[in-house]
Inverse folding.
């Protein structure tokens, strides 16, 4: 017997099994997401449990609660995203480093999946029990089941399409819409010609099958990647590569560094929005519009969604586009770009131009779709009524001008959504970026809640005070914007500042013109419209973007 | 630790002039009052162990890091204040080529060409053929060695006045290393341009460098012409009359190794004083040898570590 045996050091935090170690790692890498999700839940629970004012708070701020619930669920999805970026392989999928662990693939896949389902269910029922139940809202089990399976599918898609990131975004968007509709199944029951019981049974079976399928597919794809396959060298990619190899390519040199940078940005980030728009139109809107071609109401609804499609996509893609590299989670400017003899100001201008081209193409795609759909297979009855009402109110010239300005301002608004985050994303500071995202969401929630509150409690008796208060708030916002713009633009070159101010004036002029054409002939309303029209196009924030990039580039 | 000051060429001769550069990341001091000058037309090798501060120094030369204290001038310009003026005259190859994998070789060349008015397409083509890079190949499909070659090609084809290589041969096979070194030598011998490169492969530095600087834990412990450095450093084999149980203490020695009666001492510039010191210890010099840069590096790093330990105690 060895009497000199050293005492065995306890294993780190008692991690004696691979599952515990993997779970610990998942927690450590995403703990802030989890804290954020729990924090939002806790905040609303505390607000809601605060006694006498509960009903009042809930009634008036219900949309805010819903928004925060969605945010916390997104945070759980972020927590259990469990994919890593490999810049060299240009691949973002299941953590490659785990493949060398002596752990079977099914366990590598099952651990984040099970944790994900548990977390998302806990959060959902936390909201249901602590926030919505005390206010008399009862959340069912069906959305919880859909949410759990949705998370499993999300993980599978993220891992399976690690090398096909554009395809992955489209697939995730389509899957997301499918699951949202599935979660709202009870609202569609009256429109389904089968007995409700059969529909529920079929849906439960389908959901169970999907969950099993997601796990099996997840295991299959991760196993394939573990054995050297599935990293973007798939059949589809090979075929696409073959086609692009034979297509004519640019052979002449770029005219200027700015032109070369434009090409780089376009290839890297510019194509995403048009591609996603086209994909959504072809895969979603075209079939839906064809299936509902006899329904005039559905035409109007589909048209409305189609018109906001680029805006929604720009809001999502804009977060990534604003980063130095859309596909990288790292906010630092890649050294490959940082050492280019090009000023940070020129790099930002290039991004603005690429965003403009990207958005123009997305809107052109949408207009082409509308030009095909509306005359060829849409039921235009309600749309014609709307047009005739417009004609009666405004006349042909005015209505034509409104439509034209609507397209222009929608395009400008889409551009704004893409570029307005540049100042924070280019700074390279991840904390600022996250805080900005959270604040943006919170402000949006507060705005929605405030509007709902205002509409609910609108009293003509106080109309004058409302107008006066709103007017002063808008004046303050416009003055602050202009004042900040002076500070942010003064460190940029005067030529660029002048060019952008001219652009801003023209863009804001379009908003003003649209506002004046649309709004009724009331003096007080018109002055509010003019003030509000000066706000959407960013001015100060874009002046800050080159300074942020410079800070990122030269730390 | 005492900060070493090294002689500088006149500012007109120096392509890079770094004076009292200080940089800290959080609590860790990465560069501590570093001063060095890179003469025009030379091959300047920067050596140091991992984490010594080599990449940080190079990033300061590129203007990717702002000096917290001290100054950095490249071609007499501040690389932070005038990045376009400086970067347009530099060719840079990083330790881990971060070339965009989606680009093809020909696209990389065309893209890079746009930024450099002096881009020589014929030279670029010649290098591309020499390196065996297919123009239509995507960068992500290339091996590590081929990626390094593509990076070197993009860094060299505009015939930069200063070629800046940050551990260019790290993790590469001997053939690629040879290709890169040959390109470095050609750059200097054919066109008299300046090359600044960092490495911890000391044989490489010794093979091609005119000047050498050695960083150790953020301090510049050695800087000067390679020949002078090698001439200053000598190894003396000492023989003691009786076996020594512990290393003899010799003032000015960088390292003392051995056992029993025979000990080897590496000295820096104390050649004249050594015989008297050795005699006083009861030993005699039996042989004097030239030392390699590797021996000097190990001896210097060891001395610096000892000095750090002593001063902290």
């Amino acid at each position: 017997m060895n009497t000199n045996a050293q005492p065995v050091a306890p294993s780190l935090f008692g991690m004696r099994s691979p599952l515990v170690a993997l779970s610990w790692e998942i927690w450590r890498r995403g703990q802030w997401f989890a804290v954020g999700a729990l924090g939002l839940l806790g905040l609303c629970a505390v607000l809601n449990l605060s006694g006498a004012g509960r009903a009042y708070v809930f009634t008036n701020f219900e949309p805010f609660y819903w928004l925060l619930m969605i945010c916390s669920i997104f945070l759980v999805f972020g927590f259990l995203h469990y994919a890593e970026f490999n810049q060299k392989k240009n691949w973002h999928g299941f953590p490659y480093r785990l493949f060398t662990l002596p752990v079977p693939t099914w366990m590598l896949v099952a651990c984040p999946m099970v944790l994900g389902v548990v977390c998302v269910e806990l959060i959902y029922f936390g909201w249901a029990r602590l926030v919505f139940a005390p206010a008399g809202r009862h959340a069912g089990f069906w959305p919880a089941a859909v949410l759990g399976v949705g998370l499993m599918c999300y993980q599978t898609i993220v891992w399976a399409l690690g090398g096909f990131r554009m395809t992955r975004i489209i697939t995730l968007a389509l899957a997301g819409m499918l699951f949202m509709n599935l979660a709202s199944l009870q609202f569609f029951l009256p429109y389904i010609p089968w007995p409700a019981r059969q529909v529920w049974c079929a849906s439960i079976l389908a959901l169970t099958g999907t969950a099993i399928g997601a796990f099996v597919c997840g295991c299959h794809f991760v196993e394939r990647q573990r054995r050297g396959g599935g990293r973007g060298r798939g059949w589809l990619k090979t075929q696409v590569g073959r086609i692009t190899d034979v297509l004519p390519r640019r052979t002449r040199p770029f005219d200027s560094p700015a032109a070369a940078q434009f090409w780089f940005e376009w290839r890297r980030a510019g194509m995403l929005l048009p591609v996603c728009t086209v994909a959504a139109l072809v895969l979603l809107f075209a079939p839906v519009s064809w299936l509902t071609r006899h329904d005039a109401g559905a035409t109007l609804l589909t048209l409305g969604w189609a018109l906001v499609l680029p805006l929604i996509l720009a809001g999502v893609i804009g977060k990534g586009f604003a980063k130095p590299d859309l596909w990288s989670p790292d906010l630092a400017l890649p050294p490959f770009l940082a050492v280019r003899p090009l000023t940070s100001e020129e790099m930002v201008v290039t991004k603005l131009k690429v965003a403009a081209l990207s958005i123009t193409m997305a809107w052109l795609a949408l207009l082409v779709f509308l030009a095909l759909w509306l005359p060829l297979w849409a039921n235009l009855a309600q749309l014609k009524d709307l047009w005739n009402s417009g004609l009666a109110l405004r006349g042909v010239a005015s209505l034509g001008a409104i439509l034209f300005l609507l397209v222009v301002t929608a395009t400008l608004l889409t551009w704004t959504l893409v570029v307005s985050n540049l100042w924070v994303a280019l700074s390279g500071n991840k904390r600022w970026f996250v805080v900005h995202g959270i604040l943006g969401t919170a402000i949006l929630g507060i705005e929605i809640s405030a509007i709902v509150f205002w509409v609910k409690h609108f009293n003509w008796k106080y109309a004058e005070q409302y107008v006066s208060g709103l007017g002063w708030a808008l004046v303050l916002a416009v003055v602050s914007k202009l004042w900040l713009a002076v500070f942010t633009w003064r460190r940029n070159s005067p030529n660029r500042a002048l060019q952008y101010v001219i652009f801003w004036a023209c863009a804001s002029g379009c908003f003003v013109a649209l506002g004046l054409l649309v709004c009724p002939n009331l003096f007080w309303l018109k002055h509010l419209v003019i003030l509000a029209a000066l706000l959407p196009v960013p001015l100060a924030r874009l002046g800050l973007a080159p300074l942020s990039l410079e800070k990122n580039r030269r730390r | 630790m005492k900060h070493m000051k090294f002689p500088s060429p006149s500012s007109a001769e120096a392509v890079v002039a770094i004076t009292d550069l200080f940089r800290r990341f959080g609590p860790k001091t990465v560069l501590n009052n570093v001063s060095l000058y890179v003469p025009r037309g030379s091959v300047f090798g920067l050596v140091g162990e991992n984490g010594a501060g080599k990449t940080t120094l190079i990033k300061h030369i590129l203007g990717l890091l702002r000096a917290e204290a001290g100054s950095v001038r490249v071609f007499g310009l501040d690389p932070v204040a005038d990045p376009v003026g400086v970067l347009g005259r530099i060719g840079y190859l990083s330790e881990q080529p971060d070339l965009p994998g989606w680009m093809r070789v020909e696209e990389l060349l065309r893209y890079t060409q746009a930024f450099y008015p002096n881009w020589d397409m014929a030279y670029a083509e010649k290098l591309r053929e020499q390196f065996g890079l297919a123009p239509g190949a995507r960068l992500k499909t290339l091996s590590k060695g081929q990626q390094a070659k593509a990076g070197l090609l993009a860094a060299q084809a505009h015939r930069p006045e200063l070629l800046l290589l940050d551990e260019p041969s790290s993790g590469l096979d001997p053939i690629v290393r040879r290709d890169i070194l040959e390109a470095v030598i050609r750059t200097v011998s054919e066109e008299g341009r300046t090359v600044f490169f960092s490495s911890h492969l000391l044989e490489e530095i010794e093979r091609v460098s005119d000047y050498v600087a050695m960083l150790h834990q953020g301090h510049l412990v050695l800087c000067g012409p390679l020949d002078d450095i090698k001439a200053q450093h000598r190894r003396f084999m000492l023989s003691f009359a009786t076996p020594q149980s512990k290393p003899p203490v010799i003032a000015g020695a960088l390292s003392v190794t051995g056992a029993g009666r025979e000990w080897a001492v590496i000295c820096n510039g104390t050649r004249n004083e050594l015989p008297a010191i050795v005699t006083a210890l009861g030993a005699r010099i039996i042989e004097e040898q030239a030392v390699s840069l590797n021996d000097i590096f190990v001896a210097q790093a060891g001395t610096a570590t000892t000095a750090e330990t002593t001063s902290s105690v």
In short: The first strand of chain A starts at residue 84 and ends at 86. Chain A has 21 helices and two strands. The interface with chain B takes residues 87-90, 245, 249-250, 253-257, 259-261, 263-264, 267-268, 334-336, 338-343, 553-555 of chain A (CB under 8 Å). Chain A has two domains: 14-234, 258-553.
